[in-house]
Sequence to fold (906 residues):
Amino acid sequence: MTHFDIAVIGAGSGNFLMNRSLSDQQFAVIEEDRFGGTCLNVGCIPTKMFVHAAEVAAQVRDAARFGVDATVDQVRWTDIRDRVFGRIDPNSASAHQHRENGENTTVFTGHATFTGDHSLSVTTAGGSEEVIADRIVVAAGARPTVPAEIAQVPHHTSDTIMRIDALPRSLTILGGGVVGTEFAHIFSGLGVEVRIVNRGTSMLRKIDTEICDRFTALAREQWDCHLGQGVARAETTDVGVSLVLADGTRVESEMLLVATGRVPNADRLGLENTGIELHDDGRIHVDEFGRTTADDVWALGDISSAHQLKHIANHEARTIAHNLAHPEDLQAFDHRFVPAGIFTNPQIATVGLTEDEARRAGHRITVSSRAYGDTAYGWALEDTTGICKVVADQETGLILGTHILGPDASTLIQPAIQAMSFGLTAREMARGQYWIHPAMTEVLENALLGLGR
Amino acid sequence: MTHFDIAVIGAGSGNFLMNRSLSDQQFAVIEEDRFGGTCLNVGCIPTKMFVHAAEVAAQVRDAARFGVDATVDQVRWTDIRDRVFGRIDPNSASAHQHRENGENTTVFTGHATFTGDHSLSVTTAGGSEEVIADRIVVAAGARPTVPAEIAQVPHHTSDTIMRIDALPRSLTILGGGVVGTEFAHIFSGLGVEVRIVNRGTSMLRKIDTEICDRFTALAREQWDCHLGQGVARAETTDVGVSLVLADGTRVESEMLLVATGRVPNADRLGLENTGIELHDDGRIHVDEFGRTTADDVWALGDISSAHQLKHIANHEARTIAHNLAHPEDLQAFDHRFVPAGIFTNPQIATVGLTEDEARRAGHRITVSSRAYGDTAYGWALEDTTGICKVVADQETGLILGTHILGPDASTLIQPAIQAMSFGLTAREMARGQYWIHPAMTEVLENALLGLGR
Fold:
């Protein structure tokens, strides 16, 4: 049994807690997998590296539209994979090593189970160790779910598909959310025939309806989409895997990727032995300061947050680090204006309320959408589908939401995030600064100028 | 002789004066060339369309680095050219037509010469017409200069080179400024051997020294650069044109592009017949409201501005339109935080003071630079050269300048322009909003976080 000041379960964003203001604390860092968590190892970062390779290949195929005839001679999948993980894996290993060598950190490689509010049993390769800590931070993340009717056929999840040894000729993706649409973009960009099966009638159903409808139409153009139907059963076939849909349609591919959602890992931590309460959806309940319902037990990131986003987890880690160091001066999470990027094709970025949400919240709103194609840089891109939409409150002039579909959406949206976060009105924002002509930012400027007053 | 309320010389940004608040005024619009001015016809917009085509071709050639083997089979120059001008020319024509049909606008197609402070002689195809106006706005722009030693050999300027009938095998560009480096990017991207001759030892010498040095090194890698020497003479050769430099070096190409600078068109307007005074560099002198030294004569854009930038000219046009409509409530130009984008390779964007300028201005500064390659999205791009640099005042925490070299610089810089324009400190900006992970914007976030306090 070893006693620590602070035990951290999960070395994803949890690994950012050990900053200068807590350097006097002895930390146990308990991680059963790789350091860096979902984001670094199986999420944000490697997917974006694959996305860019896919976009390079797609750009080659699309080059003729710009007067440049070009051919993809070969996609070297294993080279792409090894380039990505040749960068990721050492990075993860060095983060691990850094903690192993840390003066105030002890790393436990294994699975943690609570045996009480401040005691953990860690199952390691060498057996079991008991860790006692005055304060515990739970940052154990989430994992992909696989529906029961799929579990029996060969399938991948986002945890495994990036490390496959060869590209399949065809890939069925079950799920039309963020993960499904990003992988659809990756694999179709790299030349794989992609089929999507999604229970809902639209893709990315949580985003603004106008963007959602437009994206769903574009998804149908680029992928073989089967929307609005559940899977009745799954079969292994000579080709690979066949999903039989409710209406009898068979969707068959060499490979199957299940992207139907993620569940918090809270069910695997023995929380029944603690005072830590859960939400109905399995997330750990935390207050605005990151405190669980057990004294001196905190939680952050995908295991407790409604937003499964790395920038949220990082913010929560910074906030909890502060709160651990300054118990007399607790800071609250700031979850007011949470942006998200979806690196599918086209790229999407969104922040704040959708048009429908703004109406439902009782705002008298003004809405303005502008096409990329109506700005000079959109001409250069020959863009025909991009759109920037701003929803504002007509009384205050404040921006309630911004929703962008098109190239570089995740970069373009930042000034809107900034305006919302600092209370700048749409009009001030549009006219109180210069917008470089002819940069792509003009689509946001124009959308702002289009708002009613 | 016809009398008007307002005469506008130049239908570039000048064409934006006739807005709603001036709808009771009778306008003469005098344009000797195409509507839309430099930006639409021979500047910002077509160059960006060529730039993107060049980047598509360059991306194909660079694709192997991402595990995608690809080949450029053919660059269809005339198709690119005709796509660009097939969009530009009708746009210019329709802007012209719109004014021809305007109830309160009369278009004169010809060259205007002042015969007095409020009288103009317009030389048209049909002869000469006299235009009298109570108020006159001079928005006649600028034109490329060609040094005397070059004038005798065949050469292009930015006015003509985009409409050539075939790509040369090789192109010498005289001048290492914005125009020269954008065309170097365009033509080398499209497969032309590019040589640059520049009197200065560095390219883009007006930008921040760190960015300038980095760009100059990258220019040397991608183009055949002859820096730090003037041209002794120019000769026509069997190949095309040869520039003989001061040290005797001969730089020979099939085609020559002269990009040595632009001069305001103020010397062609008969200003000696008016009370309009000029700066030493030939620009029309205006006060902060856009007024020249002659009563009720105004000027805007490249003919008077120290910034030859379309977004400045547009701002000045909006301001003067207001001032014409509201003489009792004059608004001043806001030239505090003027950004600029340079769409060369890599792209560059800059706003505010350079590090040297900030020091010379007496600020106690803190400076932070971050490499694109040190952020997750930079990994995806496999970027090895991009950099984001922020210069801030250590006492106030305000951002004094931001300088970015790398992909999408002109979009990435917008939040910094916004922060500077609205007086947000670097620290507030970095931590008071979310930055999507892993978007390219994180390079700016990281640069901000790197500033000393």
User: Anything to note?
Assistant: The mean pLDDT of chain B is 97. Chain B touches chain A through 77 residues (CB under 8 Å). The CA atoms of residues 315 and 334 of chain B lie 8 Å apart.
